[in-house]
Amino acid sequence: MRRMKVDKLGIDLLTHDPVVILKDLEGKRYLPILIGPFEATAIALALEGTPVPRPLSHDLMRSIIHSLKAKVARIIIHDIQENTFYAKVVLESNGGTLEIDARPSDSIALALRTNAPIFVSERIVLEETVADKQAGDEEQKKFKRFIENLKPSDFLKGREEGKDKD
Fold first, then answer.
1. In angstroms, what CA-CA distances link 130 with 28, 97, 134, 136?
2. Residue 27 per-residue DSSP state
3. Of the four listed, 49, 54, 60, 87, which is most buried by Cβ atoms within 10 Å?
4. CA angle, 64 as apex, 63 and 69 as ends, to 5°?
5. Domain check: are 38 and 77 in the same one?
6. Is 72 in the same domain as 32?
7. Are 19 and 39 in contact (CB under 8 A)?
8. How confident is the model at residue 77 (pLDDT cuts 50, 70, 90)?
9. Is-contact 27 132, C-beta < 8 A?
10. Are 36 and 105 in contact (CB under 8 A)?
């Protein structure tokens, strides 16, 4: 599992649907997930910390969970089938855990309201995320500087250290 956070909301250029973009904590990989307009609004309100006059559905869920003396331990986006992501809300209560099937958009909106961490399965990270080109470019620049600054004596140091092990 890889921990991620909400990076931003946007609009998919092809479908014109709202999309939430998750980013890994290293800032190297992005996961776009298409969501509905109501969920986009709920996520935007939570990101901005905008108060609402009456509780929205995700505020109600948070209140119910709190009233039951439980907490949202984490959410997990664990599967994708036919371009549909699947998530779980993991609750902790009375020393036990309970996993509840949920849409990723609702899970994310709830996680933002409860400060719960967001995790994505490694399979989804490997198959569905997009690399941050700028982060990759920076790593390439660092490696290039490292190579350019190497001296022949740097190779001899390693070889001399290795002689003791032969």
1. 8, 32, 12, 11
2. S
3. 87
4. 95
5. yes
6. yes
7. no
8. very high
9. yes
10. yes
Spatial CA neighbour of 73 closest among 123, 31, 107, 124: 107
Distance CA 2, CA 85 (A): 16
163: confidence class by pLDDT, cuts 50, 70, 90: low
| 3-state secondary structure (DSSP) of residue 51 | coil
8 Å CB contact between 84 and 132:
no
For residue 66, which amino acid is it?
A: H
Rounded to 5°, angle at Cα 42 from 39 and 46: 140
CATH number, domain containing residue 24? 3.10.690.10
Structure tokens given for 74: 């984490």
* pTM listed for this prediction: 0.78
- Please state the domain count of the chain: 2
Q: What is the mean pLDDT of the chain?
A: 86
Q: Which of 30, 36, 28, 47 is nearest to 11 (CA)?
A: 36
| CA dist list (Å): 152 to 68, 147, 161 | 67, 11, 15
Secondary element (H or E) of residue 135: helix 133-148
Q: Is 38 exposed, middle or buried (0-12, 13-18, 19+ CB in 10 A)?
A: middle
For 127, the domain range is 2-131
CB hemisphere CA count around 120 (13 angstroms): 25
